[in-house]
Write a structure and sequence with these properties.
GO terms for molecular function: peptidase activity. It holds the Pfam family Peptidase_S78. Keywords: Hydrolase, Protease, Viral release from host cell. This protein has 187 residues and is α+β, with helices and mostly antiparallel strands. The protein has one domain. Helix content is 24%, strand content 39%. It is built from three helices and nine strands. Strands 1, 2, 3, 4, 5, 6, 7, 8 and 9 form a nine-stranded mixed sheet that branches. It is globular.
């Protein structure tokens, strides 16, 4: 199972918030949208440096990574003020826009624990298979980081830690939803 693929070739990679992510004043958000070296539920591993060229190109062109709600380009909910790679992964810092309804809803859902995932929207520029059959993503074109309901990278968390059974349930739900999306896309 891979992240959701759109007709444009855009892929998504999900990560749950964890203690590295914080939301303050109901609108400020910062943490990791992607971790290096961790295998996600689709069997992909993002390699350190995979975002470097994309982030440099965005900066050079005066563009920014978008903050969306559930990967919907019609629903921006805030702005990412800072997006960078460090030794752990892709770190983001931004603001939910409380002046728009969906921004206020996102803040409330995060505060209630109903939303606990981040997902990146990207195109794969370069990838290789490793000896374990995993796709190692070596260069990605980053488009957006979304707040989402079902993340693929179960190792990143926000709030209370849950038991292993919960992770398995979420993986099953994510697999069913991904398969349904792929089936609908084949139409």
């Amino acid at each position: 199972m891979r992240g959701c693929r759109m007709e444009s070739g855009l892929e998504h990679k999900f990560a749950r918030f964890d203690s590295d992510l914080s939301v303050t004043d109901d609108v400020l958000i910062e943490g990791y949208a992607s971790y290096f070296g961790r295998v996600d539920q689709g069997g992909d591993v993002v390699q350190q440096g995979a975002y470097a060229a994309s982030l440099a190109a965005l900066k050079r062109d005066g563009r920014a990574v978008k903050m969306l709600w559930q990967h919907d380009p019609a629903q921006p909910i805030g702005v990412w003020d800072e997006v960078r790679e460090d030794g752990k992964g892709l770190w983001v810092k931004g603001r939910l826009l409380d002046s728009i309804g969906k921004g206020r809803e996102a803040a409330a859902l995060i505060a209630a624990g109903a939303i606990d995932g981040l997902s990146i929207g990207y195109r794969t520029r370069r990838a290789v298979k490793n000896d374990k059959g995993q796709r190692v993503l070596t260069e990605l074109e980053l488009w957006e980081v979304s707040l989402v309901t079902f993340p693929m990278l179960a190792s990143a968390r926000v709030g209370a830690k849950s038991g292993a059974g919960d992770d398995a349930e979420l993986r099953e739900i994510a697999a069913v939803l991904s398969a349904a999306r792929e089936e609908m896309a084949r139409g």
